[in-house]
């Protein structure tokens, strides 16, 4: 039964044009739950079966009656075609194809796949890369100068040179912050080097001054890394679906 139900759930989802992530959000479950249903590893509870039937406008009896061919469950789909022009740009959809032209470039969606206009994306990426390289070079020079100043200023027993060399890790952080802000994707922020540099800096200072109880307590800051990336990924997904919903809301329906 699980295998038959899994095939029907997969066919219905694809027919109505939902991705696994979109369907998961509508039902309030994880994408992994949808995957397990469609692979036949588990079956949805009766509450989720009711929700699926409401979504697809079919009865529970028809969904679970495996003598009924899946094609009989498909309803006539209304094409959500539109053209919309607003302060954000031009937005057009016909069938499975969407085109969005705005200040960030030309975005072409073909079903679940997104493609970008080569010129717009290339120009934007080239500009971002150029600015990022300038920030990298500037940051390296700045932190090298800071390291040398500390080294020569705190020169007794080479305390400055021995203790503060980890600040050189910070030179790779500013450009990643720039990319994260420009792309509105904070998973690109290099928090690993930020935490690693801080850990080594605190550890070296603690070792030379007998502070912080050695290297043990500073190691706790590595817990920040998985927490940060979890939050950054959640924010990234939230922004993606928010933008997608906004595009659908700002439309002129041409289907009639």
Could you characterize what this model shows?
- It is a single chain.
- This protein is an alpha+beta fold and 256 residues long.
- It has three domains: 2-73, 434 Repressor (Amino-terminal Domain) (Orthogonal Bundle); 82-116; 120-245, no CATH class.
- Helices cover 57% and strands 11% of the residues.
- The chain has helices at residues 2-15, 20-27, 31-39, 46-56, 60-64, 118-153, 159-164, 173-183, 191-209, 224-249, and strands at 82-86, 89-94, 97-102, 105-110, 113-116.
- Strands 1-2-3-4-5 form a five-stranded antiparallel sheet.
- A hairpin with a 2-residue loop joins strand 3 and strand 4 (105-110).
- Helix 2 crosses helix 3 and helix 6 packs antiparallel against helix 8.
- The radius of gyration is 27 Å and the shape is elongated.
- The protein starts with a helix and ends in a 7-residue tail after the last helix.
Which helices and strands occur, and which strands form pairs?
Elements: H1 2-15, H2 20-27, H3 31-39, H4 46-56, H5 60-64, E1 82-86, E2 89-94, E3 97-102, E4 105-110, E5 113-116, H6 118-153, H7 159-164, H8 173-183, H9 191-209, H10 224-249
Antiparallel strand pairs: 1-2, 2-3, 3-4, 4-5
Helix pairs in contact: 2-3, 6-8
């Amino acid at each position: 039964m699980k295998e038959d139900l899994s095939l029907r759930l997969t066919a219905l989802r694809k027919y109505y044009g939902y991705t696994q992530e979109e369907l998961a959000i509508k039902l309030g479950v994880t994408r992994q739950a949808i995957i397990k249903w469609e692979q036949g590893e588990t079956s949805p509870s009766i509450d989720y079966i009711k929700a699926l039937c409401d979504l697809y406008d079919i009865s529970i009896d028809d969904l679970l009656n495996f003598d009924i061919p899946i094609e009989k469950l498909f309803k006539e789909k209304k094409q959500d075609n539109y053209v919309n022009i607003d302060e954000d740009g031009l937005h057009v959809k016909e069938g499975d194809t969407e085109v969005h032209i705005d200040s960030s470039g030309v975005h072409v969606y073909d079903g679940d796949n997104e493609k970008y206009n080569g010129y717009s994306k290339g120009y934007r990426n080239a500009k971002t890369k150029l600015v990022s390289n300038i920030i990298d070079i500037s940051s390296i020079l700045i932190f090298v100068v800071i390291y040398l100043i500390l080294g020569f200023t705190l020169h007794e027993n080479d305390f400055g040179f021995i203790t503060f060399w980890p600040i050189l890790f910070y030179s790779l952080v500013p450009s990643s912050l720039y990319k994260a802000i420009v792309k509105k994707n904070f998973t690109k922020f290099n928090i690993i080097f930020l935490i690693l540099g801080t850990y080594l800096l605190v550890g070296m200072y603690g070792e030379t001054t007998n502070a912080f109880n050695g290297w043990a307590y500073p190691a706790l800051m590595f817990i920040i890394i998985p927490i940060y990336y979890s939050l950054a990924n959640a924010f990234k997904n939230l922004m993606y679906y928010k933008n997608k919903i906004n595009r659908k809301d700002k439309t002129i329906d041409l289907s009639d």
